[in-house]
Design goal:
heterodimer; A: about 110 residues; mainly beta; 4-stranded antiparallel beta sheet; about 55% strand; B: mainly beta; about 50% strand; globular
Chain lengths: ~110, ~120
C-alpha cells in the first residue's frame, strides 16, 4: 500500500485561479516536503514542514503557500496560478532523524 | 548554497554495456549522498545512500563511492538492462541543518537502454 499519496494526479487550471494540491502520508513521518520538477532543473524544494501547523520556506517559495493541518496531511496552495507554475509536483516525507525521503507519485499541473 | 551537478542526458546504451553517470557536489558541510531513480509516471525512489566519506553504496547492481577529496559520487553499473531505463538523480543532504532531510538534487540523467 502506497505510503505517500497525492491528489489530484493531474489538473488543468486557468491563469489567476486558485489551485490546491494535497498530500497524505501513512509513514508516521514528522517531515513533509513539496517539490516541483521541471526538465533540466531536477527537483526543487518549495516548502517543507517538520510539525503540524507549521511550515517553512524552501528554495523557491514565491507564488506558493503551504498548509500542514495534521502530521499526515500537507497541502500546496497556488492562490493565483500562473503559466510558469506548469510543472509536476511531488510530495515527500521523512522521519526526523533520517536522511532519505519517500516520494508520492506526483501531480501534473497544467496552467492555461 | 549547496549544489549538485551530474551528467546531462539523455544517455542511450545497448543492453549489456556499462554505465557511468558523473555526479559532483559543492557543500560546506558533511553531506550524506544519495542516488534516486525515477521510473515513468512514478515519484523518485531511493536507490541507495552513503553517509560517510570513502564508503561505497550499492543496490541492484548499481554502485557509487563517496569521494570526499574529489567531491564526487559517480554512479556505475557494469551491465545495464532494458529495465534500467529511467531518470537518475544524484542528491545530497547536509548533516547539520534545521530542515530534517532537506535534499539538494542534481538535474537528473535520463537513461534509455536498447534491447
Amino acid at each position: 500500500e502506497a505510503a505517500v499519496t497525492q491528489s489530484p494526479r493531474s489538473k488543468v487550471a486557468v491563469t489567476g485561479g486558485k489551485v490546491t494540491l494535497s498530500c497524505h502520508q501513512t509513514n508516521n513521518h514528522d517531515y513533509m516536503y513539496w517539490y516541483r520538477q521541471d526538465t533540466g532543473h531536477g527537483l526543487r524544494l518549495i516548502h517543507y514542514s517538520y510539525v503540524a501547523d507549521s511550515t517553512e520556506k524552501g528554495d523557491i517559495p514565491d507564488g506558493y503557500k503551504a498548509s500542514r493541518p495534521s502530521q499526515e496531511n500537507f497541502s500546496l496552495i497556488l492562490e493565483l496560478a500562473s503559466l510558469s507554475q506548469t510543472a509536476v509536483y511531488f510530495c515527500a516525507s521523512s522521519w526526523a532523524g533520517g536522511r532519505e525521503q519517500y516520494f508520492g507519485p506526483g501531480t501534473r499541473l497544467t496552467v492555461l | 548554497g549547496d549544489s549538485v551537478t551530474q551528467t546531462e542526458g539523455p544517455v542511450t546504451l545497448s543492453e549489456g554495456t556499462s554505465l557511468t553517470v558523473n555526479c559532483s557536489y559543492e557543500t560546506k558541510q558533511y553531506p550524506t549522498l544519495f542516488w534516486y531513480v525515477q521510473y515513468p509516471g512514478e515519484g523518485p525512489q531511493l536507490l541507495f545512500k552513503v553517509p560517510k566519506a570513502n564508503e561505497k553504496g550499492s543496490n541492484r547492481g548499481f554502485e557509487a563511492t563517496y569521494n570526499k577529496e574529489a567531491t564526487s559520487f559517480h554512479l556505475q553499473k557494469a551491465s545495464v538492462q532494458e529495465s534500467d531505463s529511467a531518470v537518475y538523480y544524484c542528491a545530497l543532504s547536509e548533516t547539520n541543518n534545521n530542515a530534517g532531510a532537506k535534499l539538494t538534487f542534481g538535474g537528473g540523467t535520463r537513461l534509455t537502454v536498447r534491447p
